[in-house]
């Protein structure tokens, strides 16, 4: 996949997984609620793809509904580690090939493990599409199955 970049990597990976996705252009947003309004979705349907660094230097993706925040104790318990943190932006880019605000597990330069909050199950979600100015829409259940994601309660309300 190294010959394609940005949203093209997302499209190639989704096709390889048999996922039906929709890419939409999205104007720049001030914050997550504003982005949700621009896309015509509820904040809970706009999923944040967070890159999380483990203490051993490996990474994982945490998929978090937009109306919730990551719960570090819950995520650590599910992953089975004592230390997790968000990496600096340049490390997230190195780990995935995507800049913050565009990150998605689809087309990542490394297929890191995916941990998804149970709150996204059964929904059609919007998320980063690998490139600024675009959002990806996908059936969450199909996405999670295609990624072999671990689904658990890993968030708390905002």
Structural write-up:
The chain has one domain (6-157): YbaK protein (Alpha-Beta Complex), CATH 3.90.960.10. Helices cover 28% and strands 29% of the residues. It is built from 5 helices and 10 strands. The protein has helices at 6-17, 32-39, 72-79, 89-96, 140-147, and strands at residues 21-25, 47-54, 59-65, 68-70, 84-85, 114-117, 124-128, 134-139, 150-152, 155-157. Strands 5-2-3-6-9 form a 5-stranded mixed β-sheet. It has a 3-stranded antiparallel β-sheet with strand order 1-8-7. Strand 2 (47-54) and strand 3 (59-65) form a beta hairpin. The longest helix is centred in the first third of the chain and has 12 residues, at 6-17. The relative contact order is 0.24. The model has no long low-confidence stretch (mean pLDDT 96).
Labels describing this entry:
158 residues, alpha+beta, YbaK protein, five-stranded mixed β-sheet, 5 helices, 10 strands
Blueprint (SSEs and pairs):
Blueprint: H1 6-17, E1 21-25, H2 32-39, E2 47-54, E3 59-65, E4 68-70, H3 72-79, E5 84-85, H4 89-96, E6 114-117, E7 124-128, E8 134-139, H5 140-147, E9 150-152, E10 155-157
Parallel strand pairs: 3-6, 6-9
Antiparallel strand pairs: 1-8, 2-3, 2-5, 4-10, 7-8
- The CATH superfamily is known as YbaK/aminoacyl-tRNA synthetase-associated domain
Q: Which CATH C-level class is it?
A: Alpha Beta
Calculate the terminal CA-CA distance, rounded to whole Å: 36 Å
* Major beta sheet, strand line-up: 5-2-3-6-9
- Count of runs of 4 or more consecutive helical residues: 5
Quaternary arrangement of the chains shown?
Answer: single chain
Beta-strand content bin: 25-35%
CATH topology grouping: YbaK protein
Largest sheet: 5 strands, mixed
Q: Helicity level, as a percent range?
A: 25-40%
Strand and helix order: HEHEEEHEHEEEHEE
Low-confidence stretches: none
Determine Rg (CA atoms, Å): 14 Å
Mean pLDDT: 96
Q: Outline, from the CA principal axes?
A: globular
Structural class by secondary-structure content: alpha+beta
User: Domains counted in the coordinates: how many?
Assistant: 1
CATH architecture: Alpha-Beta Complex
Number of strands: 10
